[in-house]
């Protein structure tokens, strides 16, 4: 991502893309090409649980989802950050589906299956799912703080709220996130 | 006055009973408004409930920071420097990423019948013209009088000895979804064109909108990768 992020510029750019302005569509097409690279990086960092063609399919599916959801994109952070979020969500969902299906096969056929332990899971993986479940402005503020590295003053400017309000939402969000993580981890342990 | 300890279990004599007013202090420590070595923050450590709670919340912020580091590393690489894939290092044209991206762009245009990104070809059936990474690759859609649904052409990328093209054609529904199974699949091809015949041709001809993709298949390993994906429709 080059140059400082300008919220209004990004908003206008996306509006022009949705309005099908040719020059902006071309730029969008170039920017969305980060999706296959993000997917490949996630796969490599997790010990390559998916074959290359599966990663390709995941990337294609995610790009289609990104285009369909583009009207929902709120430019609190650069487009690429939003695309990364979609990639992470789709990647870990696919991983869970794959592991769940293999557990079913293993239970019924007693076939040796590739389990979650074969994937190089990171301790912070579940935090992405928890953030999606948290949703709303609290999740956005947490992302701006920890993913974009913004201060509370900067977050307040971007979200057009007071600094105190942002801090209150942040604290509440972390508290709820903690409860969500406990629930997610206990569900994983029961499997 | 009892001497406070900074960390670890509170000594029996110094334990602080939990109070609702501690909530504000916990929030202040978490947001950085209160430094950990501040007297008020150190007082919290004497409350078993708050000490435990702060530990749990800071574990969450630690995980978020780790996730943030990974995200930055991935985005720095993905956005500013395209990663060289194994295929690219072997000199093969890496087209699928561009084609897949252009498919996504194509969805922005469906189902309009004019293409803002380029001129539709002359001919009875318009296509969304999808290009490729290589600007010399030319158009993938048929041109002139050729019926877009009766013949499929694409730039003939360089194939290795055991590689062939395979074309798969899918019907696109009105809601933009694709049928799970392809309508038609070509035999392995060496050249960059295919004319479906018989029942396959008839099935394709019944469709109003199709998506077709060109794969490169390795005849030995059976691995395959997508190199083009095109949206085509009848006006």
Describe this structure in words.
The complex is a heterodimer of chains A (191) and B (235). Chain A is an all-alpha fold and 191 residues long. Chain A starts with 6 loop residues before the first helix and ends with a helix. Chain A has helices at residues 7-18, 22-31, 34-45, 52-69, 79-109, 125-134, 136-146, 152-159, 163-190. Chain B is an alpha+beta fold and 235 residues long. Helix content of chain B is 32%, strand content 15%. Chain B has six helices and six strands; from the N terminus they run H-H-H-H-H-E-E-E-E-H-E-E. A four-stranded antiparallel beta sheet of chain B has the order 3-2-5-6. In chain B, a hairpin with a 5-residue loop joins strand 5 and strand 6. In chain B, helix 1 (22-31) packs parallel to helix 3 (48-80). The radius of gyration of chain B is 31 Å and the shape is elongated. In chain B, 31% of the residues are buried. At the A-B interface, helix 2, helix 3, helix 4, helix 5 and helix 7 of A face helix 1, helix 3, helix 5 and strand 6 of B.
Which keywords apply here?
heterodimer, A: 191 residues, mainly alpha, 9 helices, B: 235 residues, two-stranded antiparallel ribbon, 6 strands
How would you sum up this structure in a few lines?
Chain A is mainly alpha-helical and 191 residues long.
Report the β-strand fraction of chain A as a percent range. Answer: under 5%
Q: Mean pLDDT of chain B, rounded to whole units?
A: 70
Strands of the widest sheet of chain B, in order across it, are 3-2-5-6
Largest interface in this structure:
A-B, 58 and 48 residues
Radius of gyration of chain B: 31 Å
- Calculate the mean pLDDT score of chain A and round it: 87
Proportion in helices of chain A:
over 70%
Quantity of strands of chain A, as a count? 0
What order do the SSEs of chain B take from the amino end to the carboxyl end, as H and E? Answer: HHHHHEEEEHEE
Biggest sheet statistics of chain B: 4 strands, antiparallel
Indicate the radius of gyration of chain A in whole angstroms. 19 Å
Through-space gap between termini of chain B: 87 Å
């Amino acid at each position: 991502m080059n140059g400082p992020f300008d919220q209004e510029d990004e908003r206008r750019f996306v509006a022009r893309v949705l309005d099908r302005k040719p020059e902006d569509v071309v730029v969008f097409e170039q920017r969305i090409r980060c999706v296959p690279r993000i997917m490949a990086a996630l796969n490599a960092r997790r010990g390559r649980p998916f074959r290359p063609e599966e990663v390709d399919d995941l990337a294609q599916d995610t790009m289609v989802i990104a285009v369909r959801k583009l009207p929902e994109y709120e430019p609190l952070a650069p487009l690429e950050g939003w695309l990364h979020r979609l990639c992470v969500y789709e990647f870990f969902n696919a991983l869970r589906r794959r592991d769940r299906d293999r557990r079913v096969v293993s239970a019924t056929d007693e076939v040796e299956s590739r389990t979650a332990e074969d994937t190089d899971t990171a301790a912070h993986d579940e935090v992405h799912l928890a953030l999606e479940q948290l949703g709303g402005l609290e999740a956005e503020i947490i992302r701006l703080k920890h993913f974009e590295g913004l201060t509370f003053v900067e977050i307040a400017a971007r979200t057009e709220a007071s600094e105190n309000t942002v801090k209150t939402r942040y604290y509440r969000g972390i508290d709820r996130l903690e409860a969500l993580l406990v629930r997610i981890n206990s569900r994983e342990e029961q499997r | 006055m009892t001497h406070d300890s900074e960390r670890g279990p509170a000594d029996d004599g110094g334990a602080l009973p939990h109070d609702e007013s501690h909530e504000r202090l916990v929030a202040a420590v978490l947001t950085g408004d209160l430094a950990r070595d501040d007297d008020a923050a150190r007082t919290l450590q004497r409350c078993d409930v708050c000490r435990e709670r702060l530990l749990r919340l800071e574990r969450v912020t630690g995980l978020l920071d780790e996730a943030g580091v990974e995200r930055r590393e991935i985005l720095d690489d993905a956005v500013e420097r395209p990663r060289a894939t194994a295929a690219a290092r072997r000199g093969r044209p890496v087209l699928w990423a561009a084609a897949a991206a252009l498919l996504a762009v194509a969805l922005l245009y469906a189902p309009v019948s004019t293409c803002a990104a380029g001129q539709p070809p002359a001919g009875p059936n318009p296509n969304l013209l999808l290009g490729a990474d290589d600007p010399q690759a030319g158009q993938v859609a048929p041109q002139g009088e050729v019926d877009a649904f009766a013949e499929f052409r694409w730039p003939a990328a360089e194939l290795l000895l055991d590689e062939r093209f395979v074309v798969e054609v899918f019907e696109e529904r009105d809601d933009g979804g694709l049928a799970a199974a392809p309508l038609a699949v070509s035999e392995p091809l060496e050249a960059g064109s295919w004319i479906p015949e018989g029942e396959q041709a008839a099935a394709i001809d019944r469709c109003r909108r199709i998506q077709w993709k060109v794969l490169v298949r390795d005849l030995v390993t059976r691995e395959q990768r997508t190199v083009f994906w095109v949206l085509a429709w009848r006006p």
